[in-house]
Design goal:
alpha+beta, VC0802-like, Alpha-Beta Plaits, seven-stranded mixed beta sheet, 7 strands, 27% helix
């Protein structure tokens, strides 16, 4: 069911640190498909991203000596109302969404929405109890933002 990884990198909040992470990925031949950047404090920043090549991204981040976490990404169907339906089901199951951001699905250039949830396996079971998600065209991804066992 999982198709790729989301990476989260904490970095210094100084000017240029975000650009350095992006440039390092570029130099490693890694294409960023979806991206979210925030600066929760003046001294720390957080960038989350989904890439086309998680193995190369991992090598780049390790080569740059950047601390990072990984989270699983699962794809959901591309159909009208999927976001509303999925969020409603997650809410009914008391599964919290911690963050959301957009990107582009590489094979189709279709919009890609990333939702960070606390329990990805449970979220997938709630959203798609039949298991049909694995064969659907992607447009919404559900991830475990903590990068823990899912």
């Amino acid at each position: 069911m999982y198709t790729t990884k989301e990476f989260a990198v904490q970095m210094e909040g100084s000017s240029g640190s975000f650009g350095k992470v992006c440039q390092a990925l570029t130099n490693g031949g890694v294409n960023i498909l979806a991206l979210h950047h925030s600066t929760p404090t003046e001294t720390k920043g957080l960038v989350r991203f989904v890439v086309d090549d998680p193995v190369s991204a991992r090598k780049v981040l390790e080569g740059e000596r950047l601390a990072y976490t990984e989270a699983e990404v699962a794809k959901l169907p591309h159909r009208p109302g999927e976001l509303a339906r999925s969020l409603s089901k997650l809410g009914e199951a008391s599964i919290k969404v911690s963050h959301a951001y957009c990107g582009v699905e590489p094979s189709t250039s279709a919009p890609l929405l990333i939702l960070g949830v606390s329990e990805v396996n449970r979220a997938i079971a709630v959203i798609d109890p039949t298991g049909a998600v694995a064969m659907a065209a992607p447009s919404v991804a559900v991830i475990d933002p903590m990068g823990g066992a899912v």
